Amino acid sequence: MFITESELRELWRDGKGALPVFPPGTRFSPAALDFLKTHKLEIRFESAALSDLRPPTSDVQRPAWDKPGTFPVVLTGPAPVCLECGQPLNKKPEHMTQVDAGHFAPKTHPRVKLRGRLDSLHAAMMLAAAEARRYQLPQLAEHLDTLAAYCREVQSAEYNARPVQALAVAGKTEDEIHDISHWPDKHLGIAHIVPGAEDHAILHWLNFVRTMTREIEIESLELYGPKGHTHENQNADGSIPKALNRLSSAVYYLELLFKRGDLGWKVGG
Predict the structure, then answer these.
(1) Are 239 and 143 in contact (CB under 8 A)?
(2) What percent of the chain has pLDDT over 70?
């Protein structure tokens, strides 16, 4: 890890004049070293023993969907059919996009609009993960990577009209996360939280992603209703609305863990 002066200043301000404990091997730019000297700041490094407590990613059992992203559309098979005229189109018109493997639809189609919102949610998840890494919160960043992968799973399920696979993150199933998000005092020993002005920027990033997820859940309910988005679904299991509901619970679960100080150094603590 390499820390610049501007990053060091931001960490110092958000820490209210204190710096976090850095991972072993962290390096600092010459300007950052001058900043440390000027303000007489001491650098503390995380002990190797503490680092060993964090299991490597390769040792964690991951769901099949928790993998790096790939370009979602594979152009194979017969030419997709236009939903407006019912004719096959060998070239995509500018105002249309591929709504699934067999059809083109206008970009104003409700499914395309929802997919765009899911794409924005994925981008917000990745931005939050990048911010977590900037603040040396690798556990939180890894969990956000998993939730970003779940956004891709929801998009894939929507595109292919199949049930969404179950969510899992931070060693918890979606049912466990849902229960914790409703009863944090019982499971985590802390009350429900509302981020305030004194809270760290990371908590506000998480809360922003959570509220964005809830908005998209409502949009998916308006489009599909509570019972699903595939012909096979007769209940909420595997539906996009349920998947988004559990995803928002998972983000809130990370908020609770961060507030309690379970996901890295605690600002001001």
Answers:
(1) no
(2) 82
